[in-house]
Predict the 3D structure of the following.
Amino acid sequence: MALTGLDFAVLVLYALILFAVAIYVSREPAGTKKTTEDYFLAGRSLPWWAIGASLIAANISAEQIIGMSGEGFRIGLAIAAYEWQAALVLIIVAKFFLPIFLKREIYTMPQFLDQRFGGGVKVTLSIFWIFLYTLVNLTTVLWLGGLAVNTLTGLAVVPSMAALGAFAIAYSIFGGLKAVALTDIIQVVILIIGGLVIAFLTTSMIGSGSVFGGVERMFTELPEKFDMIFEPGQDGYDTLPGIWTLLGGLWILHLNYWAFNQYIIQRALGAKDLPEAQKGLVFAAALKLIMPLIIVVPGIAAAVLVMPEFGVLDGEVLNATSDRTYPSIMSIMPGGFRGLIFAALVAAIVSSLASMVNSISTIATMDIYRDYLNKDATETHYVTVGRIIAVAAMVIAVFAAQPFLGGFESAFQTVQEYTGFIAPGVVAVFLLGMFAQRTNKYGAFAALAVTIIGSIVLKSTMGDAPFINRTGLVFIACLVAGVVVSRLTAAPREEQLLRLGDVQTKTTTGFNVWSLVIIAILVLIYVVFW
């Protein structure tokens, strides 16, 4: 067992503080009951700092921490493209997409599709998202979290997953999105502190007590690990294909995740107004800049620590399963620090789990149950149904995780590729629905059909090509299919058209200044590490 009594004391303190805050923010004024807006959208009262922190807490999960650290060990800093490009996408979403969503006062992404294309498209994607979040996203976070708990405590993976799922449900189920978002402040603080500690300690070990010496040693020993843009034939080109990482399908994955993904965008939908939501997203973009320091750098450090000179990590184990990298690093940390780092990992895991089950319950309750199964129930009834669905989704994911992910070398890249099968169609449908008024429901269905068929065909005929490139090609095909089929069929009804004349895209001076600063930093990063 790698955890000491001091480590467990740190974990218990973290859990107690989290539960105390969750109970406090979940309480209801005397004589009132939670409405669906209270439970699923935090009463539309979230401030910018809660939105930004909650976005990062929901996003940075076991998939990122464990999966991206493993990729840092395997291919290096280039995997940080997922983090750094996300910062720019968050700014784009805040300026151009959020105004549309908040103007429509929607609860969910399927609700927007219902307004624009009708119930058929809404139900199709609602069911898809429920299955995706439950059987892909939840299972990934649970599986990688279970591996970490197993490595540090010796507890078997399935009981570890069950414990993490129960923890997430216990603190979030009664308060809904408000409890999730406001406790995420604690989660992000612990995540950043714990991540910086592990980055500091690993680089210090390499540099014989000096962080700067350790960083210099990493550059000297493994300069190829600091390439952001790979050349053909270089390790990692198969998943991050050089310049196409900047110009190709990775943008489709980002837009799908940050703009149209319910469990991410739901925080912004819960904002008290548009400027507050936009400030929250630019705050999240700023936090994104530092995430590789706490996620990817420890993985690169592990590639040095497996060398015979150090011999503190087992290279055979990490080369066989790179997802073991972060848990292995945690196991060599000093007592007390292990507890802090483990608390940071648990914070990332349970905050993501809580966010996902909240979004699953929102879509299942508001877009399926309320609209098609029971239209006349009370607000309290819908909240209760949402809680039951949240628990059911977590239980299903615990049992599905090992059969689905147990045999993959890198769960992070596996999930990206699976997501890439549907992301082109989802992004195409939303972009056409927003900016191509002639697009109708038939065009939307055509785009969704092409994303599945096209992805399967390219996977079977171009399986050796990087999946990011395949994603870009399928996206273009989805756009063409959506436009052509819409032109060949009846125009959408007048009430389905999305008029943008009253949508305000002008942003505040503060938002613009911070956006330019973030963009300048991103340009500098790519110039230095190209």
